[in-house]
Design a protein that fits this description.
The chain is built from 15 helices and 29 strands. The chain has 645 residues and is an alpha+beta fold. The strands form six sheets. Strands 6, 7, 8, 9, 10, 11, 12, 13 and 14 form a nine-stranded antiparallel sheet that branches. Strands 24-25-23-29-28-27-26 form a seven-stranded mixed sheet. Strand 20 and strand 21 form a beta hairpin. Helix 4 packs across helix 8 and helix 6 runs antiparallel to helix 7. The longest helix has 27 residues. The N terminus is likely disordered.
Length: 645
């Protein structure tokens, strides 16, 4: 994939060269001018010659412009070879490439203006700042995996940027990125706390739940690996502070070794020359020993619980971190938390019948016999429950012994919230979900069951507007629960039913050479210009095309899993589509995970809530928060285009 990506960069450079001015200088004039950097290369193919020429030009950029040394170390390797290589993989702009002789004795000459080099590094500095701001935003939302990823990527770029970049974390924490980011990353890891909650031991295997907090608040998202007694397992996805582990035996030291994810190499865009080049050089990747922690675990008979916590490290109470040399470093404070409080709900006073039904369902899940719970469901509800129990290539079980339930009145239903379950697939991948039961208030039977949204997504919807009727909040919340559940159960029938026949469906595809990407279009669709992001192409699909494409993905993947997080929900005006008062728009952060592929993007939906079920009239997926079109901008553009017609 690396070779393919570099080849693509060269192709881009060649295409750009054709738009330069007509007053071309000779090769000798370019070589003798201080206004250019250049390189020559030879090879049996033009591709080899181009690669060598670009590499030579990159070294000239580093040595002549930024005064990087070419001194050799004891092993004969360039001491700054890693920096030179990152220049060669950067997105070089406005490169002219001239073919001096043809294959099989190909010779190529390439050059670019020095001012273009300055622009290149200014763009890298801007990207560093953007990563830091994205990390701060994610940290405030308690999305700690995203925070670590953005901070780490910013650090990697800062290490190879010739000009220092200043960043600011507030509280007088302002300084050079290369100095502050390592402290910030370590600070985040030190403010993460993991505790084994409870679990069971059966046949010497240990299944347990682990609770993770950040700055004493349950994390919204986190990824980690753990050692199961033989090898490292993961990544494990933490949802609402809870992750599941399965050990092959009781650890000899009664501790579970956990490693927080922070590098995320599979999420690096192959066409991001800056970052992709760095990940190709292992010695350039900074290692953080703070990412590895050991969590005490106590096993007594079949019961598993938290072991005795270790004494805090010296200085921990004073917000200091212990360094390897015995000194302490003051931690950078956590970003202000941006999560919203849950609104009060109307609890059902009499719950004995509901509790009995939920416990029956949980027993049916434990013994893998859905028929045991048949009397608790309506016919339609039971079919959905059976589909959940027989999830494609997966096994469902109750996660943990201690289940906490609450029963509330909402949107004409009695809701049972919730049963924590673990879904484990044949590949070993597992997810934690919370089941929500919707009871018919007259019959007391369960009409449907769905995966609950994250607390953050739920709170954002329920607090969207004080002027909304409560029924609208619950309708949208239930709809989004059913939407993500339908993807997990691969229900193209249901997904088709919630799209209008003339729905506007736009999917953004990142221009990567990632053949396994689920965003790659199996059907071409209609390419549309949507914003100024040239790294993303947008395709418009008909409903039929979109559902057919989705079915192909479901058939190909062992699992497809959505997690929704922070969002903006509005009552909107799109008069050409839906009458005022019935149209709602939601812009929501979506984590998409499937076997072999995952991404984080932003989903925009426009819903008509007049019918029994909300109907989607517009679906838009965008990959990048920094350059995305906001919900309000999209509505304005849509209304303008409709008026123009």
């Amino acid at each position: 994939m690396e070779i393919t990506a570099k080849k693509y960069l060269v192709m881009v450079a060649c295409a750009l060269s054709s738009v330069l001015g007509a007053h071309a200088q000779s090769n000798d004039e370019v070589k003798n001018s201080k206004n250019y950097v250049w390189g020559e290369g030879t090879g049996t193919t033009r591709e080899q010659a181009e690669k060598e020429a670009l590499g030579a030009m990159s070294r000239q950029i580093s040595v002549n412009i930024f005064n990087i040394s070419t001194q050799k170390d004891a092993n004969g390797q360039g001491m700054d070879e890693s920096v030179l290589q990152t220049v060669s993989t950067a997105m070089l702009q406005n490169v002219q490439i001239r073919e001096l002789s043809e294959e099989p004795d190909a010779r190529v000459f390439c050059f670019m203006e020095r001012k273009e080099v300055e622009k290149m590094y200014e763009a890298r500095a801007k990207k560093i700042q953007e990563f830091v701001e994205a990390g701060k935003l994610s940290e405030g939302h308690l999305q700690i995996d995203d925070a670590l990823r953005n901070y780490y990527w910013a650090l990697m770029l800062a290490k190879t940027n010739p000009k220092a970049v200043t960043i600011d974390f507030g509280n007088k924490e302002k300084g050079m990125a290369t100095a502050l980011l390592p402290i910030k990353i370590r600070s985040v890891m030190h403010q993460l706390k993991g505790t084994v909650m409870e679990g069971v031991q059966e046949n010497n295997r240990v299944n347990a739940l682990v609770n993770f907090t950040y700055n004493d608040r349950p994390v919204s998202s986190l990824q980690f690996r753990y050692h199961d007694g033989q090898s490292n397992v993961g990544p494990v996805y933490v949802k609402d502070g809870v992750g599941a582990i399965e050990l092959l035996g009781v650890p000899a030291n009664n501790k579970v070794r956990v490693t927080y994810e922070y590098r995320f190499p599979k999420m690096v865009d192959p066409l991001d020359g800056d970052l992709f080049g760095l990940y190709a050089i292992p010695r350039m990747l900074t290692r953080f020993d703070d990412a590895v922690v050991e969590l005490p675990i106590k096993v007594k008979g079949k019961e598993v619980s938290a072991g005795k916590p270790e004494k805090p490290a010296k200085g921990e109470g004073e917000r200091f971190m212990a360094n390897a040399d015995g000194t302490n470093t003051q931690m950078i404070e956590a970003q202000p938390t941006r999560d919203r409080k849950t609104i009060e709900m109307r609890h059902v006073p009499q719950t004995a019948q509901l509790e009995k039904a939920v416990q029956t369902v949980e027993n049916a899940i434990r013994i893998a016999n859905p028929q045991l719970a048949r009397p608790c469901f309506t016919s339609e509800g039971f079919e959905l429950f059976k589909r959940l129990m027989n999830i494609d290539k997966g096994r469902v079980n109750v996660a943990g012994n201690k289940q906490e339930h609450e029963y509330v009145e909402a949107d004409g239903y009695l809701l049972g919230r919730s049963t924590r379950i673990k879904i484990k697939f044949d590949s070993g991948k597992s997810f934690i979900e919370n089941l929500v039961y919707r009871f018919n208030p007259q019959s007391g039977l369960i009409e449907s069951v769905a995966f609950a949204l994250t607390k953050q997504a739920e709170n954002d919807i329920m607090n969207a507007s004080a002027t909304w009727p409560e029924v609208s909040r619950w309708a949208i919340l239930s709809f989004m629960e059913d939407y993500q559940t339908a993807f997990a159960l691969k229900r193209t029938d249901y997904i088709s039913s919630i799209f209008s026949d003339d729905a506007l469906i736009i999917t953004g595809t990142v221009l990567k050479k990632a053949e396994d990407s689920d965003q790659v279009n199996d059907l071409a669709g209609k390419t549309v210009k949507f914003n100024n992001n040239n790294d993303v192409t947008y395709n418009q699909f008909t409903k039929k095309e979109y559902i057919e494409r989705l079915q192909k993905i479901f058939d190909k993947r062992e699992y497809v899993h959505l997690t929704f997080e922070n969002n903006v929900t509005k009552s909107i005006a799109m008069p050409s589509v839906i009458q005022r008062g019935a149209a709602f728009g939601i812009e929501i952060k979506q984590r998409y995970t499937s076997s072999g592929y995952s991404d984080v993007g932003y989903l925009t939906l426009v819903l008509d809530t007049r019918g029994q079920l909300p109907i989607i009239h517009v679906r838009l997926w965008q990959p990048d928060k920094t350059e995305m079109v906001s919900l309000q901008e999209f509505i304005n553009k849509f209304n303008e285009s409709e008026r123009g017609n």
